[in-house]
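Risk mitigation, structural track. In case the binding assays with nicotinamide-adenine-dinucleotide fail to produce interpretable data, a predicted complex structure has been prepared as a fallback.
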Amino acid sequence: MKPYVILNAAMTLDGKIATKTGSSEISGLEDIMRVHKLRKDVDGIMVGINTVLSDNPKLTTHKISSNDSDNPVRVIVDSKARTPHNSNVLNDSAKTIIAISKEAVLDENYLDNVHFLEKYVDVFVSGEYKVDLNELMKYLFKEGIKTLMLEGGSTLNFSMFKEGLIDEINICIAPMVVGGKYSKTLVDGEGFGFMKNAIPLKLKDILHVGEDLVLKYDVLNIK
Ligand SMILES: NC(=O)c1ccc[n+]([C@@H]2O[C@H](COP(=O)([O-])OP(=O)(O)OC[C@H]3O[C@@H](n4cnc5c(N)ncnc54)[C@H](O)[C@@H]3O)[C@@H](O)[C@H]2O)c1
Ligand SMILES: Nc1nc(=O)c(N)c(NC[C@H](O)[C@H](O)[C@H](O)COP(=O)(O)O)[nH]1
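Fallback model:
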């Protein structure tokens, strides 16, 4: 059993979720409010370590009127236990789970930080060098996370699609074009070689949210 996973992201019309410098203010105010309401509705919220390093997000419902009990459990996919000591995701506004790989506990270069993180958060170990996302989903479900919002970034999004773990997509398209072959897109990673392997989707809703457009899709290849 696994959580129902909703990938939520904001992209420019040309499909970028950040520039090559890591700048990523894309959603309009109304979309940000929608995202924080969604954070309140789900049991968990998950990001990859590069998103933590680049944005230092709080991953709470702080943009809407709410209290700490409304915050979802934060989940960080961080194979080498690189979450910095001063990260906002380590504050006490919500529970945090950091998923690391076996390499992080076997290699003394990473072990100090594992011991540090264990003082503040739950650490879940799986996979040899990379977090095993299937194992992680089973663990999160057992921990009571029945609905999980995936908030990027591009690399984690691809792995989650590849494993067939995403059920639904909510994508905000902002009326802007940024370009750049080194700008992150909604889904990067290795990618598939052939269109016949593309992830099949079904459009289920189109919303005007302020100046942005929000498209909602069901993913048709889930496990
Ligand atoms: N616009 C948006 O909606 C939005 C949302 C989130 C992030 N972003 C942007 O995305 C960028 C970060 O994206 P990214 O692609 O560099 O990194 P990411 O956040 O997807 O993190 C990827 C990292 O997670 C770790 N990882 C561990 N196990 C993994 C596994 N099984 N599969 C995949 N990754 C695994 C690896 O270290 C990997 O490099 C930032 O610039 C951020 O601002 C934008
Ligand atoms: N929906 C959305 N629109 C954006 O324009 C944008 N840049 C993100 N990016 C998601 C990423 O996870 C960010 O790091 C958090 O949105 C920061 O979130 P906080 O408010 O600090 O919790 N998400």
